[in-house]
Amino acid sequence: MDNWWFNPVMFEIGPIKAHWYGFMYALAFIFGYLFLNYSAIAGRMKLTSKQKDTLAVTVILGVLLGGRLGYIVFYNLAYYFTNPLKILAVWEGGMSMHGGVIGVILGLIWFSRKYKVDFLKLGDTITTIVPVGVMLVRIGNFINGELYGRIADSYCFHFPSDPLNCRYPSQLLQGALEGLILFIILYFTGKKTKKSGLVSGLFLILYGLFRIFAEFFREPDPQIGFLWNIVTMGQLLSALMIIAGAFFIKAAFKK
User: Fold this and answer.
1) Is residue 244 in some structural domain?
2) CA-to-CA distance for 249 and 218, rounded, in angstroms?
3) Distance CA 252, CA 121 (A)
4) Cβ atoms within 10 A of the Cβ of 50, count?
5) How many CA atoms are closer than 13 Å to the CA of 245, on its beta-carbon side?
6) Structure pTM?
């Protein structure tokens, strides 16, 4: 058992503070941009440099807007309904991975129609690199001492917001499963397969399965708790991701 020891602030200059959490998001976007411009997988789409830049901006907006709106709708709608100005207070936290996925999907639909690019190929390219972003953001959650796990008696940490209880570092578990392991699977699948939609389907299914498993170690959001005293909101949304992934798999193998 260990005490959480990280400082969420990277550095500060006067009133300006740079946080590790924001840095992890920026790092994720940088990795995504490099992957989009230099990876062989992304090169299969034959996009121009301008189109790649537009795609990168589209994905970033999808992540940020979808992630924020997803958190508001899925996790804390009543609070933001009575405090609408807090919707803009992103520095207070509140992002949803599932909302980000929806935002990215909508952005890719728009991009595919505007530039006449195969939507499934777009999805396969973007979902290949998404797990790297997930891993980095989960590390940011751990450094922030937020979204920690349930109370445990081993393999646990004392986080600042709950110093009396030792809790699983579920952020690191999610980073390993939904991030590193999922990226390895998708990357090598993407290099081998020629079936458009297969990587996207695997992402949705495997992320959903990994998230459902990790939620058994993660503390449910206090404002929601357990739905029907059985599952968490994250598990419910992940189950819907698995169903959506099955449709992508079906499209990949459809003649």
Assistant:
1) no
2) 29
3) 10
4) 9
5) 21
6) 0.93
